[in-house]
Amino acid sequence: MMRYAARTRRFDRSPSQIASARARDLRAQGRDIVTLTAGEPDFPTPDHVKRAVMAALERNETKYTAVEGTLALREAVSAKFKRDNGLDYAPDQILCGAGAKQVLFDALMATVEAGDEVIVPLPSWASYPDMVKFAGGTPVFIHCSQNAGFKMRPEELEAAITPQTKWVMFSSPNNPTGATYSREELKAISEVLLRHPHVWVISDDVYEHILFDDREFATLAQVEPRLYDRTLTVNSSSKAYSMTGFRLGFAGGPRELIREMGKMQSQSTSGPSSISQAAALEALSGPQDFIAERRAKMQERRDVICDLLAQCPGLMPSKPEGGLYVYCSVAGTLGKRTPQGKVIENDQDFTIYLLEQAEVAVVQGSAYGMSPYIRVSFPVAIETLQEAGRRIKKACEALT
Question: Over 70: is that where the pLDDT of 16 sits?
Answer without folding.
Answer: no
